[in-house]
């Protein structure tokens, strides 16, 4: 009897702590509330379930029937509420033979790639214009330092699959060709700031749907 | 006369700065607005008073009439609005003779303990399974690196009192026994992931009120 | 025809990424939503325009017809919504001959000053009471480490102009004289905590409008 | 001729920038120099090669012929020099049927797991003693918030493989059983701080090789 | 026999992890190696003992036989090697009746004070020149936001004792009077940047030993 | 006499604090010691002078007699030792009429530009391929969020001058054209990852000196 009583005493004396501890444990994104520089607002811990911490969207093969023969399927905080505020996120890369993830950067994160099927030729360029390229085989891991231009390319004859993770819940993704040729970046300004020929710019805007 | 005028000029020319400067000075928690990964929303500076920066909840002796003969009284951001966003918080530890704060971690912060009354046997275990234990006397300070298992125990004959502070406004508190035996963690999974005997698990669940 | 189709496929397969990527690219301040320790809430990317990233308030000469013959015009997150969450902000300093930015600190940031017109005598004091003073000429850059007392003074015969930047979107600004003599800091407490004579305190409160 | 000259001018005028830019691009660990709170010292950029950014140690199946029928193969900054300072790292988990990664924490990081073969029963416990458990199938991703107790268990009939990543280059790994039973943690202190029976403690120390 | 063997297998398979995990657990200061922006270099984990995490220097009453009738005894990373890199530190404040810790700032940290004996009149000034003052009694906790001017004063008739902690391992300490009057800050520049009378400045320099 | 004595008492009682306080105040780069992820090692405070905090390298007009008719003169931590570890740095931009700073990113920082002479057409592209372009006049400030492609161009008839600052002591600088055409990035890989024509790539490599 006394034991039961004392149990209640502990539970009571520590309840105040537990009532808020979840705030620091995690902050599952509440997409209906405002977001700020650190991420989305937190869903009430009472409404959080295990499914908030599990994402199944990377289980399916991405659609590679497109011009790049590749697909990027993100599990960033906008798709995967559980990673909000935790400084990590993921994505799935599918590359058909000859497929390529065109030259791109993640403005807000470093990236780590793990090849789980096929082979992938991966590379990045540093600020001092050194190029670091390696063909990765199954099980190889490569890291791309934050914000640097990098690419992945399937030079092999079989479908390739890789999972990537990022040092931020929302790393961003700026694809060079899309920034230049799938935007309304005026052709004249592109030629002046890249030295590309206008004809080249117009040709790629035609393919990718850019204007200006 | 001219002096008075110039005063107004300064006040006016600098008013725009002051109208927002408090935002960075402090962000007293507004518990009625959404919270995010960095903490609670900020109460309007106009409504902030000195009492938002003072907490008296640690002044009273904690109730040690319980199974652990000890009490933890937190002054985290959920209790002490003024520490929100400032990267620091506190708690009071009361330990009756034989009292113990069971093995626990703070997932989000390092902890610093100062003994102000009695003696406390304190220790932590590092990732490489080294155990660091010392009996602290009045005035001694000990630090527990972030996220590591640690404990406090009053092996002396007199009541002990310590104040602890944390490198976060909300360090969290995961008490090992409560995580295992005061939760609905299935007994079978506990035995498989800790190698504890089922009988031991069931016995402690009986004491602490766990289910599963 | 097939090409056009594949374009749509890319656009679709990547749309989910782009729909949220802006969250990490920038978080333009929405002054109507709650703010938190990390800054203001983010305006919807759909409503963001280039004008959110441009601030023209530093283009006009500040009003130096005041007691300090100087003006500080801030472009902090409260004035310049585009810097919210980006860890940087700016201000314009105008100093007439003999003008001075009185001794002050920025509680939350380091400062970098660039002199673009005239000469400025600039200095700061470190925690070990060393004083670092230099007369900066046009084009000179000086850095003040975070939180330390510093000043700028125009000892030359011509108007001086400088632009400063900060390592925070909201560095704060605590001007020593205003904290002591333009506040309601009780004179008795000022004398006890600064060793200044009461007469000196009262004289400056008279000039700056302090009470208590 | 003039063109060649102007090229040299650009190269020269920008060389000073490039000579140090690598410092921020990356900081490949130099294990022979001192390390600090932020990680290892940086290897000279001139000595860095692509192989510093690629790690092949996760390509081989881990040895699961042990008591836990599982293996953890880390690619932290101590093994994978390229991730030093980048806020990310990885590990490979191999679990034979019935294999288990015992209850553990990563004191310094959140973890993201991707299942690439078999099924894994994964779970964690929050500070408020809620248990979040889910059986993950191939392609599922789960996140464990920083510092919380979690486990992985292969309840299926086939070998399971997962890759995990962390929000730190050195997340640490504290395995509960090893901290208690493979260390020199005195049995009496363990029983006092965990309420486990001495017999249980001694039994597991016997299995895992603990002393005290 | 087989059991013993398998134990060795675990120990071996996990040894590589443990050999470096301490790096993230803690980074005890090695005062003989270079220090950097994040703190001191790390002592080899093999040489670390529990005494690196315990500091007894705050156990003795500080010497208050001085002009301020008070003493500040720091346990920053320069005195307490164990807090290096952990984002927390401490200090002891002793105030005789009438004692005062003069107006000061900590450029790099927020501060939390706990009164353990006597009463202390504590206050700070915010960037918008609001003054927050309260007389703290035994057990009261107060927080001073980072970088703001604050003070502690013993207005009671008995010795006062407080322990303070900081949100940094090295918060710094800039005492206003010492910065102005115990330095070689030229009197003319002080008067120009503070509006204090030269006579006042010279008088306090005489007391505190300043030059210039 | 007694006064002099008490002065010594204060100086002594506080000396221990001051002996290390500079560590947090600043960490002037010591280029002869190892550097790490957080920056360069710190020069001994005893050897630091005001000249470590002042940089005059931005005072001279940059050499714009080159192919881009522009010059970038950095004051990053590698050139300006005083900013090491302070989270801020600067650069000077000179643009002759028609001059351009080609499309580039700063992988590790946000940038703030202030135009002090002439007009500059400035723009950046976000992750969702929106282009933000504005012609800045004297006194205008613009911010570029971290890691995004941006450019500056002098479309006016007169020399233009701007000072830029960054939210890091070493923001890095990756110029798109140099990464592609002044490196040894194999032409075939460039064409595959950018869809540029090989002829275009070879033409620009010829101009900029790239190989591969």
UniProtKB/TrEMBL annotation, chains A, B, C, D, E, F:
| CDD domains per record | cupin_OxOx
Question: Where does the signal sequence lie?
Answer: 1-21
Q: Where is the Cupin type-1 domain positioned along the sequence?
A: 56-202
Its localization reads: Secreted, Extracellular space, Apoplast
Q: Please give the InterPro entries that the UniProt record associates with this protein.
A: Cupin_1, Germin, Germin_Mn-BS, RmlC-like_jellyroll, RmlC_Cupin_sf
Primary subcellular site in the record, as a coarse category: secreted
Which SMART domains did the record assign?
Cupin_1 (SM00835)
One Pfam family matching this protein: Cupin_1
Alphabetical keyword list: Apoplast, Disulfide bond, Glycoprotein, Manganese, Metal-binding, Secreted, Signal
What domain of life?
Eukaryota
**Key word Glycoprotein present in the record?**
yes
Q: What family does the Swiss-Prot or TrEMBL record give for this protein?
A: Belongs to the germin family.
The protein depicted here goes by the name: Germin-like protein
């Amino acid at each position: 009897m006394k034991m039961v009583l004392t149990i209640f005493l502990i539970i009571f004396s520590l309840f105040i702590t537990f009532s808020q501890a979840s705030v620091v444990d995690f902050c599952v994104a509440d997409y209906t509330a405002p977001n700020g520089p650190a991420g989305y607002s937190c869903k009430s811990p009472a409404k959080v379930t295990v499914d908030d911490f599990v994402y199944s969207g990377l289980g399916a093969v991405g659609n590679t029937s497109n011009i790049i023969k590749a697909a990027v399927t993100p599990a960033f905080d906008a798709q995967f509420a559980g990673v909000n505020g935790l400084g990590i996120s993921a994505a799935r890369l599918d590359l058909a033979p000859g497929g390529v993830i065109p030259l791109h950067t993640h403005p807000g994160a470093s990236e780590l790639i793990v090849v789980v099927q096929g082979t992938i030729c991966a590379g990045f360029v540093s600020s001092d214009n050194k190029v670091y390229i390696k063909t990765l085989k199954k099980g190889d891991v490569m890291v791309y330092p934050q914000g640097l231009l990098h690419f992945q390319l399937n030079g092999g004859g079989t479908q390739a699959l890789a999972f990537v993770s990022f040092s931020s819940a929302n790393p961003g993704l700026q694809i060079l060709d899309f920034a230049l040729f799938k935007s309304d970046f005026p052709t004249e300004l592109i030629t002046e700031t890249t030295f590309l020929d206008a004809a080249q710019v117009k040709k790629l805007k035609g393919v990718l749907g850019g204007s200006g």
